[in-house]
């Protein structure tokens, strides 16, 4: 029997960065908020144990249980989509804090070009630069409009960085904390990049360079450079994450309740408005209804899209006709780069999730694309993440895959190889989209989300260009042997590449172009909001978290405004 809970002002579906930000701001404004998180409760105290690489980095302790819910995948509509049985290409987080618990902490703002790509590209290169199969559109917000929210997010998270990049948008204030340590390895990259005429700067980091108290009074500690960031929670409380920042802030108001092990399976509607959500207690199997005046979808972008689809809210995208917006503009990222093998040794086993130096000379439209068959580019970085022994085994490509020579090269190159990586921007294509699978269901009886995706000509050309540029920097750094990453052809669900999935519930200026408006308010359901990387109409050459955080603050502002006066906010 379904139990109906007392009505609240706001219910959020997912308690990570977006859910935590919306909850904190709404609760501070006096609204009663419930956060529903399908994973378990966890926090800094849960990570005060031995650094277990096998448990967390290989067996994915903090990730989604695929025996209960996964996605199906195919490259194109002619193929049969099959379930993803192991976490491969991307890692879907689960539990209090979401992916904000186990992220690396690289915290870039998207470029002004990202928000107005259609207008800027057409103005400089004409309307037919890529062709009509690419679904390029403006976001509906400019960088300048979003800048105050970027600033607020960075101050909440205490981001460590330096304003030395000539290509990004103007900032209203300096980073809250100074950049991380510039190690000998990073100095080597900086020297080579300077000599080549590039503009190196320290990667903006949520692994803090010094202890910091944010404007809400939450304490974030200084990074210990242990190298266990990505796929791990931080036992020092030194990585800005929702559990040490916005969630405690929300709880202090007395207006916020978190319910873990609560999996939302449907957004309930009546008369064109949301009335609440239906969820299942994943421990007891009991079913509940949580009524609310405002519903905010704040889970991972794939789940936001799926919830709208199974709840029949909005028109699903049809690639055959081009009609519909829900599921459209799915974008991923490509991972070009190169590896250099050196005679000298480096302390590659030490580091942090966002310890690095990078350049944006080939990102966005910071270079001329007139004679190139792609647009945008990639941030190119040398990251000193802390190479853990199980997951890192760099050897030259001509090394045998077993035997004495393999062992020799493995031992030799573990501390004598460096890789430069580019995060290649992804441009939406009409055949890359999300929909519901017609065959497979999850443990709760709902259809699985289906991913239809393959690399495009744009991706292939950009990958080669950035890999070649990365190889050039490594040569300047003095590598005795340099190997650019192999060209890409078709996307495969394995191995791991990036969790930077975007699109599906894009933000837009008009209902015909997207799912939500520039307050992240649903075009067809005024008291329903959906915020996250799904809001992006294209992916950038950066990590998405800072832009997700900025949009969450924008969404929270919309929720508060709506709670006061109702109606469409645009």
From TrEMBL:
It comes from the Bacteria. Keywords: FAD, Flavoprotein, Oxidoreductase. Gene3D superfamilies: FAD/NAD(P)-binding domain. GO terms for molecular function: flavin adenine dinucleotide binding; oxidoreductase activity, acting on CH-OH group of donors. The keyword Oxidoreductase applies. Residues 428-552 form the Glucose-methanol-choline oxidoreductase C-terminal domain. Pfam families: GMC_oxred_C, GMC_oxred_N. InterPro entries: FAD/NAD-bd_sf, GMC_OxRdtase_N, GMC_OxRtase_C. Residues 141-327 form the Glucose-methanol-choline oxidoreductase N-terminal domain. Belongs to the GMC oxidoreductase family. This is Gluconate 2-dehydrogenase flavoprotein. The lineage of its organism: Bacteria, Bacillati, Bacillota, Bacilli, Bacillales.
């Amino acid at each position: 029997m379904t139990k109906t809970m007392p009505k609240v002002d706001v219910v959020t579906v997912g308690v990570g960065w977006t859910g935590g930000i919306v909850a904190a701001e709404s609760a501070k404004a006096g609204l009663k908020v419930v956060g529903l998180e399908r994973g378990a409760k966890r926090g800094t105290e849960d990570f005060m144990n031995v650094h277990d690489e096998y448990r967390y980095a290989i067996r994915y302790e903090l990730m989604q249980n695929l025996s209960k819910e996964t996605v199906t995948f195919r490259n194109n509509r002619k193929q049969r989509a099959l379930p993803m049985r192991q976490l491969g290409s991307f890692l879907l987080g689960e539990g209090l804090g979401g992916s904000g618990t186990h992220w690396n902490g690289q915290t870039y703002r998207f470029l002004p070009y990202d928000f107005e790509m259609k207008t800027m590209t057409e103005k400089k290169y004409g309307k037919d630069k890529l062709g009509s199969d690419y679904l390029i559109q403006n976001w509906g917000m400019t960088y300048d409009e979003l800048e105050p929210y970027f600033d607020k997010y960075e101050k909440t998270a205490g981001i460590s960085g330096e304003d030395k990049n000539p290509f990004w948008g103007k900032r209203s204030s300096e980073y809250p904390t100074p950049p991380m340590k510039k190690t000998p390895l990073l100095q080597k990259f900086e020297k080579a990049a300077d000599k080549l005429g590039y503009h190196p700067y320290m990667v903006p980091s949520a692994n803090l360079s010094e202890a910091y108290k944010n404007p809400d009074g939450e304490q974030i500690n200084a990074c210990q450079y242990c190298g266990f960031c990505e796929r791990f929670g931080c036992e020092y409380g030194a990585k800005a994450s929702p559990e040490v920042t916005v969630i405690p802030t929300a709880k202090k108001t007395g207006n916020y309740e978190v319910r873990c092990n609560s999996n939302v399976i449907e957004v309930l509607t009546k008369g064109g408005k949301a009335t609440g959500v239906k969820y299942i207690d994943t421990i007891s199997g009991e079913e509940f209804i949580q009524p609310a005046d405002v519903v905010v979808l704040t889970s991972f972008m794939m789940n936001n899209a799926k919830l709208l689809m199974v709840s029949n809210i909005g028109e699903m995208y049809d690639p055959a006709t081009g009609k519909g917006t829900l599921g459209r503009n799915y974008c991923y990222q490509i991972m070009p780069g190169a590896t250099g093998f050196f005679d000298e040794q480096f302390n590659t086993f030490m580091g942090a999730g966002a310890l690095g130096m990078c350049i944006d000379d080939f990102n966005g439209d910071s270079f001329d694309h007139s004679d190139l068959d792609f647009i945008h580019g990639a941030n190119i970085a040398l990251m000193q993440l802390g190479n853990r022994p199980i997951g890192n085994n760099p050897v030259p490509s001509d090394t045998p895959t077993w035997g004495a020579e393999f062992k020799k090269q493995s031992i030799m190159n573990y501390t004598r190889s460096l890789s430069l990586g580019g995060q290649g921007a992804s441009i939406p294509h009409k055949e890359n989209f999300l929909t519901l699978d017609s065959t497979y269901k999850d443990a709760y009886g709902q259809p699985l989300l289906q991913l239809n995706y393959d690399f495009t000509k744009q991706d292939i050309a950009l990958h080669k260009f950035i890999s070649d540029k990365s190889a050039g920097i490594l040569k300047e750094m003095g590598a005795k042997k340099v190997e650019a990453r192999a060209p890409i052809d078709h996307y495969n669900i394995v191995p791991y590449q990036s969790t930077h999935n975007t699109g599906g519930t894009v933000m837009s200026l008009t209902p015909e172009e997207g799912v939500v408006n520039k307050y992240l308010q649903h075009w067809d359901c005024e008291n329903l909001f959906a915020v996250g990387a799904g809001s992006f109409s294209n992916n950038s050459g950066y990590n998405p978290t800072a832009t997700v955080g900025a949009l969450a603050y924008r969404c929270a502002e919309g929720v508060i405004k709506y709670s006061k006066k109702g109606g469409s906010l645009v």
